[in-house]
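Researcher: Let's continue the batch. This sequence belongs to Iron compound ABC transporter permease protein, and it's 361 residues. Same format as the previous ones, please.
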Amino acid sequence: MCPGRRARPAAPGLRAHRIRPGRRTCPGRHPAPPPARSGSPMRRLPLPLATLGVLALVTASLFVGGYDIDPHALLTDPEARRMFLISRVPRTLALILAAAAMAVSGVIMQMLVQNRFVEPTTTGTSEWAALGVLLLTLLVPAASPMVKMGAASAFAFAGALVFLFVLGRIALTSQVIVPIVGIMLGALISSVTLYIASSTNLLQMLATWRSGGFSSVVRGSYEPLWVVGVIVVGLYAAADRFTIAGLGRSTATSLGLPYRRVMFIGLSMVALATGVTTVVVGFIPFLGLIVPNLVSMARGDNVRSNLPWVVLSSVALMIACDLVGRLVVRPMEIPATVVLGAVGAVVFVVMILRQRGKAHV
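Model: Same format as before. Here are the structure tokens for Iron compound ABC transporter permease protein:
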């Protein structure tokens, strides 16, 4: 009922019209929002059941590839057992850890920047990491992988600071502007990296980093990714602090949160995850963007309760893309990040269009 208006009696012989909820009943007023749904499939799905689904994908990843390995061969064929332990197990573990790293990095950056469209590959952080590895390769060709990871993490941290500095100097009229700024900065750094690589005959090595494939992952090369476990545990323990920091500097400070310290810790975690992942497997686009957003749309914005779902969903998506890449052109394979990039780009565009649609309502 509109304020200031009285209901008119129904005409003789006619039933009174019943106003349905959600209809526009007053001039100039918006209709009431539709009633909330009872729950999304992800909200109703038990976490143990989702874990079993991910374990099924992990099992498929262990036994699917360019050469056949089955449980009977593992028990009877020493060569098959050796290849299984040298190649298949490290590759699958790298898929799991890299997916968790990028998904958690996306969650942290989205909270700190207060924008749902950011993650390491849309803020230029990954491009800065690649630049750090390239410069270290030129200056110290015999550098160990751990030194390269340190350089990549340091440059990724610097890139995140540059991104935040630029954001603080421009007027943000829409949430879409933030990833556009990050993509532009990333393109600038990427062009510098490409110029240096072309001038020093390192284009092939740069292309390998950018391909983000897992085919070359073997035992002895993926182990640094275990640091991701520390980052996931740290995010889960400090989820409340990151959530408060995401409310903005003034609000977080008024609530007694050491804002600068939390920002430093969060950016350090993102830089470390990005640097390690870049050195071990290369770029992994859009994973930290689409998975946290889809989980948030399905389950709400509780970071601590969403984190297990973010990790499981990112692992499932990464392994599924890798399996598609292995099977489509078997016995050759398409890098998992190529498949993921195609899927992620479509979802990213849909998210932007959806955001624009909300802005015009």
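Researcher: Any comment?
Model: The two ends are 23 Å apart (CA to CA).
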